[in-house]
Amino acid sequence: MAEKGLGDLMCSSTDLEHYLCEFFLSGRREITILLSGKTGAGKSHLTNALIGEELAEEGEELDPQTDNVTPYDFTKNNVKITVFDTPGLADGTGNDESYLNQIREKVASVDLFLFCTDMTSKRFGDDDARTIEKLTRTFGTILWDHALVVLTFANEVHAPSRKDVTEKEFFQQKIQRFQKKIQELLRRQEVPEEAVYNLPFVPAGELTKPRLPDRDNWLTAFWIVAFKRINRNAKAAFLMANLDRITIYCGGLLSDFSSETDRTIQGGDRMPNEEDIDVEIFGRKVA
């Protein structure tokens, strides 16, 4: 597949040209990302994968002091990216109302919400369920319009030694169980059915070993679905912030990327056509 440089892509893809022009003309230079999940759920690892910045050393969480909501600010290609971590909710420490007030005061709006939970867990915990309830109450159901559920440590999920289920089938069944539980919870919170149905569930593994049982590269799929889910007003800034860390090889338009999702609903039955899309992240080919 022939490589297309930025100039070629701008000439051949009206979508890419549109997003770049929108960035320069709109004046929008900020992105706000909200993270939620227990300490140790792989959130810093995940943000390193998403935006190519070491917000914390690998193996360390963003904010071990769970009684504070701390913004992590940095600038890439003239785009200011602010990441908020909210470990106190999921870890069950501190005063919930005080903590929620901090979130209300510090997080005015959210462009992308990543709810992270450990895929190796045998069940979806009550603490994670309470976190979803609290954040939905704080931001309203609109929070889920720009959200994705990330199932971390997916590389550690393995099928038991049984002949009646393959590794891929077991893996997809695990995604479906998380999906069913979280969708039921969101419906009880009166999140609109369209938002519940469209909520993506994305498994995430190791950066250096991107293959998972049901996909060749989780990192590519994760980045694509994040681009699709981020607030439309922030898409141009998100793309611009990442231009120096990705190279796109394509047999189609950028609209092919943003209109397709990764293997999400129904536990992994949809994926961008790999003959049409390759993405190079961190300077190495990952698709």
Automatic annotation (TrEMBL):
Protein location? Membrane; Plastid, Chloroplast outer membrane
* Coiled coil residues, start to end: none
Question: What PROSITE patterns does the annotation carry?
Answer: G_AIG1
Q: Which InterPro entries match?
A: G_AIG1, GIMA/IAN/Toc, P-loop_NTPase
- Any keyword Plastid? yes
Pfam families to which the protein is assigned, alphabetical: AIG1
Residue ranges constituting the AIG1-type G domain according to the UniProt record: 28-248
Q: Can you provide one Gene Ontology molecular function annotated for this UniProt record?
A: hydrolase activity
- Location (main, coarse): membrane
Q: How does it sit in the membrane?
A: Single-pass membrane protein
The cofactor(s) it depends on are: Mg(2+)
GO terms for biological process, alphabetical = protein transport
Report one GO cellular component.
membrane
Task: Identify the PANTHER family for this entry.
Answer: GTPASE, IMAP FAMILY MEMBER-RELATED, TRANSLOCASE OF CHLOROPLAST 120, CHLOROPLASTIC-RELATED
In which family does this protein belong, per the annotation? Belongs to the TRAFAC class TrmE-Era-EngA-EngB-Septin-like GTPase superfamily. AIG1/Toc34/Toc159-like paraseptin GTPase family. IAN subfamily.
Task: Tell me what this protein is called.
Answer: AIG1-type G domain-containing protein
Q: Which organism is it from?
A: Desmophyllum pertusum
